[in-house]
Amino acid sequence: MEYKQVIVVRVDLKMTRGKACAQVAHASLGATEVAMREHVDWYEAWKRTGEKKVVVRGENQEHLGRLFEEAKKLRLPCFLVRDAGLTQLPPGTTTALAIGPAPEEKVDRLTGELKLF
Predict the structure, then answer these.
(1) Is there a contact between 73 and 99 (Cβ–Cβ < 8 Å)?
(2) Mind listing the pLDDT tens digit for each residue in 4-57?
(3) Are the CB atoms for 34 and 104 separated by under 8 Å?
(4) How far apart are CA 110 and CA 80, in angstroms?
């Protein structure tokens, strides 16, 4: 079985490349910590197989919110980033969502059609 994590980044915010990278890192770490607590077997398998990550484009806040709710319904590790507002964005702005690490086919049900970032 293959495992991966997908990070969805909002493209409507026009974040700088560095800001977007920081948000991806926050999302990835957050979802990984969830997996370490709630899906240890998936986390360990993902670690053993190279920690595959894919970064894709999210349309807007509503899009990320829908994906987040669906991921929770499917009991997938997930983490939604809300920016602290210290640099480019207002506090609380939803910027990125990570889903997984989890079995690839489960993550792809939600993210398989999204375009690469």
Answers:
(1) no
(2) 999 999 999 989 999 999 999 999 999 999 999 999 999 999 999 999 999 999
(3) no
(4) 15
Please report the pLDDT score of residue 82 as a whole number.
Answer: 96
Report the Cα 77 to chain-centroid distance in Å: 9
Residues facing residue 78 across a β-bridge: 99
Which amino acid makes up residue 105?
Answer: E
78 sits in which H/E element: strand 78-82
Topology of the domain comprising 3-101: Bit1 (3.40.1490)
Rounded to a whole number of angstroms, the CA Rg of the chain reads: 13
Structure tokens at 57: 């484009």
Q: What is residue 74's predicted lDDT score, i.e. its pLDDT?
A: 97
Amino acid letter at 111? T
Tokens of residue 85, six digits: 């507002």
Are 4 and 47 a contacting pair, CB within 8 Å?
Answer: no
Give the three-class secondary structure for 7. strand
Token reading at 40: 């240890």
d(CA 67, CA 45): 24
